[in-house]
Amino acid sequence: MTAAHPPRPRPRRRLRRAAFVVLLLLVVLAIVAFFVASAGSFKTYPRAGLTNPALQRAAPAWTRPCDRSAPYVPADQTTCAHVHGRVVWIQHHDPDGDGDRHLLVLAHRRIHIVKVPISLRVAHLPGVGTNIDAVGFVLRGASGHDEIDAVRLVPGGPTGT
Length: 161
Description:
Elements: H1 11-38, E1 41-46, H2 53-58, H3 64-67, E2 79-90, E3 101-107, E4 110-116, E5 131-140, E6 146-155
Parallel strand pairs: 4-6
Antiparallel strand pairs: 1-2, 2-3, 2-5, 3-4, 5-6
């Protein structure tokens, strides 16, 4: 008497099993992506609260880089912003030739544009995947989106709490 072989799974059953495994992997990836995107922070503070020394002392510590330039920034830059997050894209080509560079930073489930002006002497831009801390005034960029015009950029390090 020969040993009976177990019945082979039908092709449909295999297909369903494979689809279930793929779906399960997608759910796990979505959960991981959510937690990665949740990391970081984005805070704002009104420029009006930074225009004189008495108000500056009452402001959060992270606004200090905005203090010096607050009285002189254009009227359309009414908010000091702090973003701590992960760089997901770097502008390698400066289309308008003014020397500034842009970073896309993922922080607190949102993408933020950080403009690094040529006047901000940064030896090299942080790479994709690097955590950064940036402080600057919010302005409307040429793309029509809000940008943080950085007055301080620290790869991986805090600029204050």
